[in-house]
Amino acid sequence: xxxxxxxxxxxxxxxxxxxxxxxxxxxxxxxxxxxxxxxxxxxxxxxxxxxxxxxxxxxxxxxxxxxxxxxxxxxxxxxxxxxxxxxxxxxxxxxxxxxxxxxxxxxxxxxxxxxxxxxxxxxxxxxxxxxxxxxxxxxxxxxxxxxxxxxxxxxxxxxxxxxxxxxxxxxxxxxxxxxxxxxxxxxxxxxxxxxxxxxxxxxxxxxxxxxxxxxxxxxxxxxxxxxxxxxxxxxxxxxxxxxxxxxxxxxxxxxxxxxxxxxxxxxxxxxxxxxxxxxxxxxxxxxxxxxxxxxxxxxxxxxxxxxxxxxxxxxxxxxxxxxxxxxxxxxxxxxxxxxxxxxxxxxxxxxxxxxxxxxxxxxxxxxxxxxxxxxxxxxxxxxxxxxxxxxxxxxxxxxxxxxxxxxxxxxxxxxxxxxxxxxxxxxxxxxxxxxxxxxxxxxxxxxxxxxxxxxxxxxxxxxxxxxxxxxxxxxxxxxxxxxxxxxxxxxx
Amino acid sequence: xxxxxxxxxxxxxxxxxxxxxxxxxxxxxxxxxxxxxxxxxxxxxxxxxxxxxxxxxxxxxxxxxxxxxxxxxxxxxxxxxxxxxxxxxxxxxxxxxxxxxxxxxxxxxxxxxxxxxxxxxxxxxxxxxxxxxxxxxxxxxxxxxxxxxxxxxxxxxxxxxxxxxxxxxxxxxxxxxxxxxxxxxxxxxxxxxxxxxxxxxxxxxxxxxxxxxxxxxxxxxxxxxxxxxxxxxxxxxxxxxxxxxxxxxxxxxxxxxxxxxxxxxxxxxxxxxxxxxxxxxxxxxxxxxxxxxxxxxxxxxxxxxxxxxxxxxxxxxxxxxxxxxxxxxxxxxxxxxxxxxxxxxxxxxxxxxxxxxxxxxxxxxxxxxxxxxxxxxxxxxxxxxxxxxxxxxxxxxxxxxxxxxxxxxxxxxxxxxxxxxxxxxxxxxxxxxxxxxxxxxxxxxxxxxxxxxxxxxxxxxxxxxxxxxxxxxxxxxxxxxxxxxxx
Lengths: 492, 487
Known about the structure:
heterodimer
């Protein structure tokens, strides 16, 4: 593989601007890497021509000093971002062949910032899953292998599994992800890369296929914290087309990066010491604490008493919203249509039976159930109340600290098929990630180290609302100290 | 109380009526998208990505639609909720692209208010208050077209996402006439406010009619809901028919089912659409794509300041000008009429005379020619000029009718007509005396009868004189000269 695909966004930007290599060379290198890695199943669509076209514009602009923030950088885009003229299917059969006439605000922002597109990235169907195994395109295979001499195929995590695998395998220097209950952070942790979910409302949801509207948030995944900051600056914007978009200027996160944490307090939630979590997870957590202390932070114990209700709350609210958000896939206007035998109802049933996979159907049924007459108050209303309590936990905790440090996931990457038969075990993957989602807070995973099997483990940082900078800075402090430069050995 | 009764074999029954009126909001754009809302456009020519529920599309509330609903609430004296929220009403249908309608179940924009109706429009004391329970805003659905293809239905999404106000009354009406009066009044208010054009034929206003019957003053019965009735006349027919049907059913030992019904205007019957058992579970929940709607004082103040004079206030003002209760009621019933008449008043016409002339002459002529007030060929200024010619004695009332007819035909100004056709009234005593002398001479017998006491013959002499003067003599002068000459 070309040297170029080993570089970070920051390095590519510098080398391209300095004239060390052209944007076209960058695009060609990544296009070749993508084409050579089909066995990972990370991409649902490859768009080498789009990457080259953007690169040619960048090369031209370089001669006229008209460079944009991401000129010369090719990126991968998760399949649930609408991309004009390019299949955007959210990993689902029901949207097979759907080519939007529009770009999502986020992917449009990246385009305007000069970035090229390498292709669309595989994902769990409608972002519902934690292993990328629910995709209609089949699972993404992690580039990582256990060091036990076996050849077990591992999950890259989910739902942004294609995104995570692409960065980890050097198929893209950076990618977009979305995070509803951990879908950026858990795959980032599983594949040894960084990923941040910003405050709810920082990135417009317009043009992103909705899973759970009150939780969905786009964010970047890349090799380094600085790369995440660069990408997030380009992705975020106030968007009048999204009523939940934050009408605030986008901070200059890259310029604000500093790993000096003196004067910062880091909270360690005692409720996150969960039984049954492997010792290596707790060990990397403790290591993270030491690194932050080393960076000058003071560590305090905090309490998030409603943590144990976060997962059940999430699995009421997210499916409830999803059951309604997915009603539009009915075979009438776009996507798959199965006519059924006679009536309109038959058409709905046949289309949705054929178009949705098992996990999506499960969540639509859960969501429909918790919103039903007679169950609404017991489930949905109660879940909304608990969500408020969980938010309050964070508000209280942030009176005592500036940041919260936890593990990202309760385990390293697991093998494909290991958890597919047990949805609850699968859901448990997001136990550390979900509370920040419910509270709409910025949160990030950065690589901490490898476990005994040679697999990456992530460290999770949660910040105050709008304090992406604090999260990125603490992530940088860990990154500098962890010196994580492991890459999966190429087997694909 | 209404004395409307349904005669049954077991005695008299009364009817209890509540209306849910869906009024299309006047706005250039839809409730949550920028697409246009004009009626009668080519199918699917006014559809945005949001209206078609394309993947990833999001609703953004249109300020003007909210403003119109708030102004409507204010016009109905209703509570305006500073904090309201949109909910999703979930169901599948081909005319509903999102698979849910964005509506307001739990926290509507407008709370309780009321509408005053007149049970007898000639009697301003015959008022009744009809309670408004709430007004919420919601999206309209698209339209299915079943006549385009032998085996398939087509969908037109032009209406999809258009803003509706659902105005829910209390069950305060107890006769078809009261429901009719309520609907007409509500329609008038909406049209005054400009928040709905009230055009029931084009579907911009339609009503769900809730009807139950009970023995006089007894327990409320089970109600049925007849959906989407699109004229005042049909609403009244539905109530009449539905009340009769329910009474007959109960008296035959049956039970009224709580159900949704449809009205067939051709056969003038209602029939079951779906029963309670088949009712949808709409799974309402707060729309997570939208933040709660919070209204600030400045917005409310602007809404309040933008309200026009409303029908009741206008009616009372007209009455205060000496206009009869009946005329005031007729002149304020429709906003266009009221505006036209206000124009007449501001052109300086004397109110009482102007109101009588408008109601009798102008409306008569419009009725005859099948024209609406908007198509009236005579401007308020020209009408004021005509009335002024009568008031200052330039022409007589009789001549005025002629001039009016000519105005309708030619569109000419009244003074021009009077001038060109020599219709000016004369007070020239020489000319009048000359005609009177001829008439008295030719009717010597009648003069003798009159002078021997048959006073009622005076009118005969007036008529003959006016006829001889071709209607142009000043009647006051004719009277005076006749009395002088007859002694």
